[in-house]
Write a structure and sequence with these properties.
Elements: H1 2-11, E1 37-44, E2 47-48, H2 57-67, E3 70-76, H3 80-90, H4 94-102, E4 108-111, E5 116-125, E6 138-147, E7 151-157, H5 164-171, H6 174-177, H7 181-215, H8 229-246, H9 250-258, H10 266-269, H11 271-332, H12 347-368
Parallel strand pairs: 3-7
Antiparallel strand pairs: 1-2, 1-3, 4-5, 5-6, 6-7
Helix pairs in contact: 3-4, 7-8, 7-11, 8-11, 9-11, 11-12
Amino acid sequence: MSMIRDLRAAVRPSRPSLRKDTGAYDATRDPSTPSAVVDCAVYRDGRRVATDAQLSPHEAMRQVRRDGGFVWIGLHEPSEAEFSGIAGEFGLHPLAVEDAVQAHQRPKLERYDDSLFTVFKTIHYVEHDELTANSEIVETGEVMCFTGRDFFITVRHGGQGSLRALRHRLQDDPELLAKGPSAVLHSIADHVVDGYVAVADAVQDDIDEVETEVFTPGRGGKVSRGVDSARIYQLKREVLEFKRAVAPLLRPMQLLSERPMRLVDPDIQKYFRDVADHLARVQEQVLGFDELLNSILQANLAQASVAQNEDMRKITSWAAIIAVPTMVCGVYGMNFDYMPETHWKLGYPVIMAITGVICLGIHRTLKRNGWL
């Protein structure tokens, strides 16, 4: 029961962090180890087997087959040549190997003869002082996991999604690690989904900021002219990228939580339900973001249209006022001998006064009706 109580604390921080993990691992890399290998270790009875130097994947697997336990190998953007030897050593399926090397895969879960292949999209929120039309809101990466009976292999693509801190937390909980590779798979899934929760909260703040700007009245309580539509489109594109990472992963998490699998410990499987629940909540948030941004965009365009209509009304109003003296001047500018009041001494001031009164009356009427 203590393992069950400590599981959440071991694999999930109390508050998701948006900070990048820049800590270096203590192990010394062996020169014969492929450069893509970030770490390679053997775990037995939930504890890391101490070695003088970092093991190669071949040596680690040889120890596991001889003494038991499981090996956890972490790789970062391996080439086909670097990964082919490891794939052959652990009998990985060629299709899964091809996906792991090429990356840019959709989140998924595939079952092969003696292994599970899982693809996670990692999301990192990009801090920015001001949201612009060119702001990058989220950065994506990938973590691909091969889960076997006595091995666990992670292949990471992109600069985000480091698993060093997660590995250290798991090593501090031997009781959990004793459950085998499926415990590592759950921890990574939980770690990735916690990242989604943190990013969703940060994106919510950006959307709230844009929404406030769109619906804040302009000067004098008049209708706001809205914000730059390109900013809303940019935010919508980033939310779509977020959605592509979250939505396809829900079904694999449900399968891991509902269907018994040989490679997943029954004590660990129940905790995939918690991951699936958090993921479903994030998916609802992302779908809500998409709909809200559509509404904000429509409201922004409507405000721009209303502002243009106000400008047109003002132009039309002043044109109507100017039309009165234009008409009077046009009439009395005609060269006829017999025109009323042309030889009257008070004709000019009277006509100008009448013209001014008419213009003033039109101005007051338009002002009262809100056109000026």
